[in-house]
Amino acid sequence: MTSPRKSQLSILFLTVFLYLVGFGVLIPILPVLSREYGASALQVGMLMSVYSLMQFLFAPFWGRLSDRYGRRPILVYCLLGETLSYVLFAWAGSVEGLFVARALAGFFGASLSTASAAISDVTPPNERSKGMALIGAAFGLGFVVGPAIGGSLTLWGQHLFDNQILAMRFASGGIAVLCFATFLFAYWKLQETKTAAAPAAETRHRFERLGRYLRMPVVGPLVGSFFLNSLAMSTMEATLILFAADRFGWGLVEVSFGFAFIGVMSAFNQGFLVRRLLPKVGERVLMRLGLALMAMSFLTVALSWHVWTLALAMVFLSFGHSFSNPSLLGTISLLTPADKQGEAMGTTQGTASLGRIIGPSLGGLMYGSVHMVSPFLVSALFSLISLLAVLRLGAKIPDSAKGTGAA
User: What is the pLDDT at residue 198?
Assistant: First the structure.
């Protein structure tokens, strides 16, 4: 018989997965649609950044609200807000309208940090990192299913309207329907996970709170490592499509299959492999191995002159990202007081959003003005610095999952 805890984990997983499918749908649509409205390359990049900017600004806001009022109302009603953002995106007739829609989506999408806090509510300390791996698996699956649905809806729209802009609007409207269905599912199925008493009101400024976490003896370096991980990934992601096109002549179809490959690998790793490895090796080893593989993957991309080498780099990347992220998030959660889980996860995810704001601009600048491989070398350096920070902590990183048995 399924325990209430595992039932809640399954519902949280499905909610986050459906949440992220909507985001993944726009991956193939956003650049094309914005170009149809006359956006420059810089504006396309800024459209990608504004979502992360809003997440960075508002993730702690939603986290604090969830600490005070509960996880369920934040997750459920932000899904309704996401629905509105997709409706606006579908009917935007200009670049400015797209910016408003993406900013609104980022504002409500910042509540995803609350899902991490909800996971921490329903998992015991020795299974915390395995619980966080569910979030990563939902991300991976969302990025596989999302682009596939977006492409399929666009093709369907083309058959219906014989007009590319209307076809992409049709696809965006379809995601609004899916997001609303997710809202209804969460409204009826998602239960409150927070049981601790509400904390006192937090009056510190956003960056004061970030500074407070960064000054914590072990948590600070781990939050910094999580930021560097995000910065390295986003610097690479912004230029990988350009690199594949310029070096291998890839088009949209090849790139889509490439991202689907990464997503499938990541979903398997975080949904299955990580949850089996954590009880055997613990967070400490998995975190180190993941960061080392991340650095290797970026370096291998830079050295890729054949498609098989690039594929190997993507294998390293999927394993590295799957190993490092849940271990970092789970350990930060373990070292944070129970009544501050929402704030801690919000602050940590906020730093990741900051990395996703800086990374695309940094990667594009280096790709165009330095060398086509320079973004990947810089990403490798970021991962190496993150690895060194973790190695320096040594045994201070708890191994709570080790020896607990696979979930």
Answer: 44
CB contact at 8 A, 189 and 11:
yes
More confident residue, 272 or 291: 291
C-alpha span between 50 and 57 (Å, rounded):
11
Q: Are 304 and 310 in contact (CB under 8 A)?
A: yes
Helix or strand run (H / E) with residue 69? helix 41-69
- Please compute, for residue 280, the number of CA atoms within 13 A of its CA located in the half-sphere on the CB side: 7
**pLDDT value at residue 378:** 95
User: At a CB cut-off of 8 Å and minimum separation 6, what does 210 contact?
Assistant: 347, 350, 351
Residue of 117, 113, 136 lying closest to 56 (CA atoms) = 113
Give me the amino acid identity at 186: A
Please tell me the CATH code under which domain 4-189+206-394 is placed. Answer: 1.20.1250.20
Mention every residue, 6+ apart, whose C-beta is less than 8 A from residue 120. Answer: 128, 131, 333, 341, 345
Extents of the domains making up the chain:
4-189+206-394
Sorting pLDDT into bands at 50, 70 and 90, what band is 200? very low
Distance separating alpha carbons of residues 316 and 323, to the nearest angstrom: 11
Rounded CA-CA distance 320/273 in Å is 12
Per-residue pLDDT reduced to its tens digit, 227-246 = 999 899 888 876 777 788 78
- Who contacts 182 (Cβ-Cβ below 8 Å, separation ≥6)? 15, 18, 19, 22, 79
Half-sphere exposure of 24 (CA within 13 A, CB side): 25
Q: Which amino acid is at 72?
A: R
